[in-house]
Amino acid sequence: MHPAYSVIFLTTATGAGYGLLALLGLLRALDRLPHDPAFGLLALGLSLALITAGLLISTAHLGRPERSWRAFGQWRSSWLSREGVLAVATYIPALLFALGWLVLQRHDGAWVQVGWLAAVMALATVYATAMIYRSLAAIPRWHHPLVAPGYLILALATGAVWLNAVLTPFTDSHELVKAICFAALAGGWLVKISYWRAIDNAQGESSAASAIGLGEVPGFDQVRPLDPPHVQDNYLLKEMGYTVARKHADKLRRLTHLLAFLAPLVLIIIQTASSGIVGLAAAALAAVCVSFGVIIERWLFFAEAQHKVMLYYGADRV
Amino acid sequence: MTSLPKVPTPKRLGLVIDLDTCVGCHACAVSCKEWNTAGYHAPLPDTDPYGKDVDGVWLNRVHGFETGLDSKTGGDGEKAGRTVYFPRSCLHCEDAPCVTVCPTGASYKRTEDGIVLVDEDICIGCKLCSWACPYGAREFDTDGGVMKKCTLCIDRIYNDNLEPEDRQPACVNACPARARHFGDFNDPESAVSKLTVERGGVELMPELGLKPTNRYLPPRQPAATGAVGRLDDAPTSGGFLDWIDRVLSR
Ligand code: SF4
Ligand code: SF4
Fold this sequence. Notes:
The complex is a heterodimer. By secondary structure, chain A is mainly alpha-helical. Helices cover 66% and strands 1% of the residues of chain A. Chain A has one domain (5-313): Formate dehydrogenase/DMSO reductase domain (Formate dehydrogenase/DMSO reductase fold, Up-down Bundle), CATH 1.20.1630. In chain A, α1 runs antiparallel to α2. Chain A starts with a helix and ends in a 15-residue tail after the last helix. Chain B has helices at residues 27-36, 97-100, 128-132, 154-157, 170-174, 191-199, 222-225, 227-232, 239-249; strands at 13-18, 46-47, 55-56, 61-67, 82-88, 107-109, 116-118, 138-141, 146-149, 180-184, 215-217. In chain B, a hairpin with a 6-residue loop joins β6 and β7 (116-118). Residues 71-78 of chain B have low confidence and may be disordered. β1 of chain A pairs antiparallel with β4 (61-67) of chain B, so a sheet runs across the interface. The complex binds iron/sulfur cluster (SF4) (2 copies). One iron/sulfur cluster (SF4) is lined by residues 90-93, 96-98, 116, 133, 135, 137-138, 149, 210, 212 of chain B.
């Protein structure tokens, strides 16, 4: 599948933003975060900026962006519509949460407990985003049980590493957040390794013969393409026909291992062992690394996905 | 509404395409383009039509395949290698994933006859339906910013201004090999139902379970035509032909 930059940016930016929002809501409801409104402004501001930028950029890949309000209509059947509804609805608890923290400076009661709701809805939005891909049987590498867990845990991991970075100037003792970073990064790493192993070993369910209906017809169940219908790339080939060479994919997977998982883990260990400016630099670098790592991971998620329509254009099995 | 019809549609309109007789002339594709660039989905734009990077929206495309490559058929050990031309367009699936993924309701399946359509006035051009269709039946119109697909020539088949014999999809009318047939699959007496039964009509990618309405008729087995056998054992019946055969065989 063609890796469109708007969609890659949408899913990684909103993922980090919702992951951060979920952790802020949760940890503040449990009273495990500093009350300092400056911290609140930085952390919540970052989260809402990432979410809002991601959502706005995502309309850039629409053919008719001025009609995008129509996308809220079909939540009964469409995960894309559900994503839109949840994304907008999440602003309500998120803004109430921000109001209580930053403006009213209330650190107990309903103003804090609304953090639970913000957390649940933020994660539900990420889940809906993942299900847009997960539900497409035409693209087997997306139609995979590890896709939704991957989106959720990577959202939490990027959110946690960013939370660790913005928290560092305000407090030295935030072991719980570091523990969440470790858990989410390790979990994300495990999911990604299992996912790549699974898709590498998967045998495509459809063949070129089944694509033209001859899969079960004796004598004709072996086919190979002869004349293409057109000699230049059409919409289908441009949108679904994107392929990335094995050796490039391998290189990018290694880069993902390094940037999304290994580097942030090591940098947070360094941060724990040091203090002052070194610690802050390590925490900030971890956040930059994990963001680039997840962008590469998401690029690969698109570039490595094969669409069944390619069976009509030379693919053997998808 | 992008939820699929709750009860089976009373009619199931669709096409039967005969892979045995299709000669790959592209007449159906050209005639489809011609009708639809002025009809329901007008226009079907082309970008750079006379330049180097020709591209454009087509709702029907004809692929050529080789088949019968490694199989022994006909009982005489001959290879049955042959060309199959395969016209590809929307199959108007019963469990159409392109419809349920649509966030706006622009993609819908008609409850009366099962035709799958896009309402261009509502479509936001998110392209998700084209990702959801495994058959590549939807193409994006970069000029209009909306999705296009086969309408089963809804503006012909119910068009009282046309002669009754012309109230069929443009592709069916154009086919010089009579490889395309249109009708109601819910009617067991219709030509499409009968052909499907007689010739063992097949679904595309049945493993996905989308219940496509259109059926394809597989190539006939070579043994059934007798073409290979006729060359091998010319009858020796005596008489004039036999005499010529003996003279020429010397
Ligand atoms: S062939 Fe594709 S576009 Fe047509 S109904 Fe089936 S899934 Fe939808
Ligand atoms: S491109 Fe249009 S018809 Fe297709 S899913 Fe999006 S809004 Fe619906």
